[in-house]
Amino acid sequence: xxxxWIIILVILLGSLLSAVAQQQAPxxxxxxxxxxxxxxxxxxxxxxxxxxxxxxxxxxxVDQLAAGNYRIAxxxxxxxxxPRGEFKENNTRVGxxxxxxxxxHFPRTPLLVGLNVSFxxxxxxxxxxxxxxxxxxxxxxVERSNNYLIIAPVVRFQGQLGWMSAYVEAGAGLSNxxxxxxxxxxxxxxxxxxxxxxxxxxxxxWIGAGIxxxxxxxxxMPAKQLWVSNPVLLQFGFRWLSGGEAEYLTPGDVDxxxxxxxxxxxxxxxxxxxxxxxxxFRG
Length: 283
Fold this sequence. Notes:
There is one protein chain. The protein is elongated. It has a single domain, classed as Porin (Beta Barrel), CATH 2.40.160. It has an eight-stranded antiparallel β-barrel with strand order 1-2-3-4-5-6-9-14. Helix content is 17%, strand content 55%. A hairpin with a 2-residue loop joins strand 4 and strand 5. The protein is an alpha+beta fold and 283 residues long. The longest helix has 23 residues.
């Protein structure tokens, strides 16, 4: 019995000492875990991202175009000129050539003013012939072209609705109708000598209209109010051109016989119906 009490006393004493030790021991609080700090882009990547966000493309760029935020327009077209009236009676050839217009656009308005230059050829003949009667064993190519050059200031009103645009325009200036003959090396096509057979200048005036669609929206930077890359439009147009009276030649109006030349000179108004297809740049 005595041993039992000793054992119980030892157990109680151990429990007491254990309790006292727990009360005196410092309480250690668990340290919170550090949350990972999200990494941010720095350096070149961040600058590139900021620069990209400052440039508008797609619909946003088209909105800037529709708002009229551009100053320069450049049109480059393929030109087809169909003779009308008296000009058609003397010449049934369709003029084929190139057309270009450079405009200044008044920002946030539909008004553009500029200069138009059109060049077309309404007939070309070629023949191979001896260089001369004394040198019949050397042949050259003789090329004769009938040309119509138009230079005119132009005023245009153009509106943009989303990706589509439409315009009306009017111009007035000068026309130069001329026939030119060139002598070329028929093997290399290199020009040796040339001469104008006939040339005349007259006036012209015309009205026109057209439609277009944006095929490349470009990139616009609002902060600097400039285009990083230029918008491009595909355009179709026509002109009703009234040309003044002029002297001119048509294919077949030059007659060469027995070493002499004669011309069948035509004289009439020089009206055209013009169709255009091309691209227009904005900037």
